Amino acid sequence: MTDSTKPLGEFDLIERFFKNRANQQSKNYPQILLGIGDDCALIGAEKSFNSNSLKDLAISTDMLVEGRHFLPDANPYLLGHKCLAVNLSDLAAMGASPLGFTLAISMPEVKASWLEAFSNGLFDLANQHQCPLIGGDTTAGPLTISITVFGSVSGGEALARHKAQVGDDIWVSHQVGDARLALGALRHEWPLSAEEFNAVSGRMHAPTPRVDLGQKLLGIANAAIDISDGLLGDLSHILRQSKVSAEVFIDEVPGSDVLKSKSLELQRLCKLSGGDDYELCFTAPPEKTAAINGLSKELGFALTKIGKVTSSSTQLITLIDGDGHPLPPNLSAQYLQSFDHFQ
Amino acid sequence: MTDSTKPLGEFDLIERFFKNRANQQSKNYPQILLGIGDDCALIGAEKSFNSNSLKDLAISTDMLVEGRHFLPDANPYLLGHKCLAVNLSDLAAMGASPLGFTLAISMPEVKASWLEAFSNGLFDLANQHQCPLIGGDTTAGPLTISITVFGSVSGGEALARHKAQVGDDIWVSHQVGDARLALGALRHEWPLSAEEFNAVSGRMHAPTPRVDLGQKLLGIANAAIDISDGLLGDLSHILRQSKVSAEVFIDEVPGSDVLKSKSLELQRLCKLSGGDDYELCFTAPPEKTAAINGLSKELGFALTKIGKVTSSSTQLITLIDGDGHPLPPNLSAQYLQSFDHFQ
User: Which ipTM value was assigned to this complex?
Assistant: First the structure.
């Protein structure tokens, strides 16, 4: 129980909700030589990078701003979860194993109840992925949360975006589109029943980073990316960086039962252009199909073949419908448009 | 020359001022296997952590908010410099060598001229310290800048705050107090002539992180900290974490000629409680005095003995004046009060 009537200063606040919990957590991780409370955190090379095989360090950073990435009344537990989830998802897309993360947060006021819920969401997910909080900065200002996450991956094995090969199959994990379906209902773009909304909104508020899948894809997949801005937009990053093209069988892209009950047009919009699902899209040679199907059984969610990497200098995506026909160019362009935070 | 009349989207903006420059910069650093443009950056273990000797990874993060840490009309070149400088200063305080940094920035509008100057300030300092930008996130929102910096330090050798020993001398680099003297003039707490202000304001706007000094103190100093919140406040972190006390000869603390021309009271206030100087305060055994004096000659700035680590369970600082007398408790308390971002 916390006493939220007593005003807290910065140091009390950090100690109660972040530093003490973080340093308690770090005790379980021998690679963390120094956690919060010095000029820097220290991750021990001997106990992390050099164990077993030579390992590279993977690093990703994200910033979430109130009013832009979440609403002022966002549930602080889910917000704590999501801030870390989107960063863990980047580690997953490289096949990296989490080592730890830093948190920089500015907030307009010190509210113990908010911080308690936020830090619970954050630490619950961090503990689930053995990813200790090792450093941070807290200051007054508009609510803005910036997380940087670190992971290790065996030397040279990371699933980079430039490694897709002509002939690779394109795969996607679990289902996509529900986050966009829920967002559209919130924005009154289309109606959802309360039951439908409850079934899909968790995908928007509390995404599941596919950290295990990413690690298990090392040696199986060539390239990978997490779906944050939309399947086609994110896949196009792989294509551009690998200098290849692709065919995507758009009606093979897996969606939830709720999404499948909607019009074909809405299904396609949500699955192809909707962001925030944080599933993995990856490419792998056809001879890895059995291994990938085995992984799907082991992990308990679908891994679905949705396209093929083809050769071409144009680095374009051709969308193929359920009858095997390419979509008309204007419809194609509509799905292919990407996402610009400033437009 | 840039064309600042054309509106830029997020991707153009990142590419022009950050990504292209960062990836150009990274080419000079073989340890950067992947820079900006994938889900994570990758730092190669073989080319960094394992070279020569076993190395640990040092990590620090800071967030700067407009209106809190800098004014809306702050010079963007100096702001770019300062954002990175405060993080490099944390690496310096551990004795770590920079490996790279990430930048997360939210800003209300895309203004090419501002970004050009900001990125110039950032990259000029980064290049000076061989510290490439390896990852980032850019979004719309109130101007907020969060940097996370990474460095390597030989296994077990980092200058941590908990390593001060009874009998150690306490040292400070160069001079302290000018940043506070300039800030006070801006706040109309005291007057400075234009000439005086010009002489000292650089210490506030463009601090010099003591990265070389930090690295050279490995094997010489026991504990170190960078002076960001004020000499006594920062020293007290070392004392608390090392479970020791200290005597500080307050009139031995080195100040600039401008500061020395002010009243004794103002000198003490600026040197003891003023923050933002980003000099290093460190402790070392008396037998290292010659080595430290040698370092001072090599680096071209003063390293001054300002106190002693003493034994006591109270972890207090005793302030000694120029006549060798302890300061009265109420005056002492005034200098010892620290800094709380929320109060």
Answer: 0.87
